[in-house]
Amino acid sequence: MKYSEASVPASLVTQMETQQAILGLSNEDLCTALGFERSIVLTLIQAGTMKMPLNKVPALAAVLDLDPVELLKTALSETSPDLLKVIEEVLNPLHLTSTEQNLVKHLRGLCGGRFAAPIVFSGKGVIALVTV
Description:
Blueprint: H1 12-23, H2 27-34, H3 39-47, H4 57-64, H5 68-79, H6 81-91, H7 98-111, E1 116-121, E2 126-131
Antiparallel strand pairs: 1-2
């Protein structure tokens, strides 16, 4: 079993409704942010009758203040799990978790394009960053 399979995220609709409630957003707010001219589209998505169009996931993540990568993964797992598997194999061949990807992103940002040699002290939970 891969690490990413160890925990199953909440459904897209559950994440959407939970975060919508936390942020106090109305369905009209979501429709506007997503560019839905008719609120019935959102109603159908929330009822599970229609899937969220994948091209709307970035806007949904932005308005709900959620991680767009994780939200897209959830949406793809619900609509096209085989496609998600191929995308993860091609774009994330090391099967890094989002936390590990965030660590790499911060490492690169701290280095500012310079060579970096992270040093991990085995078993100590300490990482040192050496740049030249």
